[in-house]
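Review form for a predicted model. The reviewer records the input and the model, then writes brief findings.
Reviewer: anonymous (R2)
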Amino acid sequence: MKSKKFFIIPGFFALALSGLTILNSCSGSKMYSRNGTVQNIEYGKDGYTAYLKDKSGEDFDAIISRVRMEKGYRVLKAGDHVALSGDTIHVENKVRVLVKEIK
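Model under review:
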């Protein structure tokens, strides 16, 4: 009985470790960056959503959260031209930036 446990337990840990390694290597460390001009602001509980337009006239959204940005949080206003970086999600054929940094 001990011989089976000897192989099963280390095998499980080796499998779990290799799975975590693969997941970590698949997650990209590159941040998405985009420039645009703020068109409108919609306030929420812990931040706001900014609706922006880039130089080519394409609309995109930016979710700016106090929790995600911590010390770099600031409130934008309509007309501000900004460079944003962070992760992205795509909703209804529109890019939505989960902002980590505002320049």
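Findings: Helices lie at 2-26, 66-69.
Further findings: The mean pLDDT is 83.
Recommendation: see findings above.
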